[in-house]
Each structure stands twice: as structure tokens, then as C-alpha cells.
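hey can u check if this looks right to u? its 156 residues, i copy pasted from the old doc so theres a chance i mangled smth
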Amino acid sequence: MLDQGWQEGIVARYVERQFIDGQSAQSERVGNVLEFRQKAKDVKTWFDVLKDPLMGQVMRTALGLPNESVRLDVDKQAALFAKKFDIEKLQDPDERAKLERLYAIISDTRDTSRVSANAAVQLMSGVVNAGAGGGQFVPITLDIAAIGSFPRRPYL
């Protein structure tokens, strides 16, 4: 007869994997963060990070390291990571959450596919187009109080 705890562990891992896969299908960044969150607890050395492409990508992005650093020797990459971040901090849930937010923010800013949907870009495009030969003045009104009331840390 199978151990009940073993079965529950298998089911829990399956459900978690399905959830991560579902989120990844909707948003690659969200999926990457969830995958990072799952794997980061088991990281002991920088080599644990470097052996997993996703972990390496998330850490490079969050720490502001160029993607070209993957071409370096593995020992040099580990030293570069160690200079930027203490691997022991990865065991702290608050530090992991900071890295997750950094990754999400930096990834969002690098995503040029969503720029045209950004409201600020649309407003400024209208002004630029009007001044570039349209001959029209496009007035805009910004409610600074409303903008100031938005959460300052939207990636919590």
C-alpha cells in the first residue's frame, strides 16, 4: 500500500506545475517568476543558478547583468553574480520577492511589443504628430492628484 503523504506530495506538485504552466501560457514573465519562486529555495551556490537557464535569465535581468554574460566562463559568471548579490540572501523570502519585482519591472520595460498600448506613449504620439505637420494643437489635461494616488510599487 502506498504512503498517503507520498501521494499527497505528488498531487501537490502536479497541481503546482499545472498552475505554473497555465500562468506561463498567459504571461511568460509571470510564469518565469513563479518558476523562479519554486526553484530559488533550493539554490545553495551560483552554480545551481547557472545550470538552470531560466534561473540564470531571471537573476541576470534582476541584477542588471547583460545577457551577453552567458558567453563568459562559468567561473567568471559565478564571480560576477557573487559580486552583485549574496547567494545566502536568496533563502530570505523578502529578498526573493525583491528580485522577483525587479525582474518583472525590468522585463516589462524591455518589452517593446506593448509600447503602443501605453497611454502615456499614445498621448505623446498625438502631440508629436500634431506638431509634425498636422497643424493641430492637441490639449491634454493631467490630473496630478490622481496620478499621485497610484501605488508606487505596482509589482508587489
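Helices lie at 4-26, 28-40, 46-50, 53-63, 74-84, 93-110, 119-134, 144-148.
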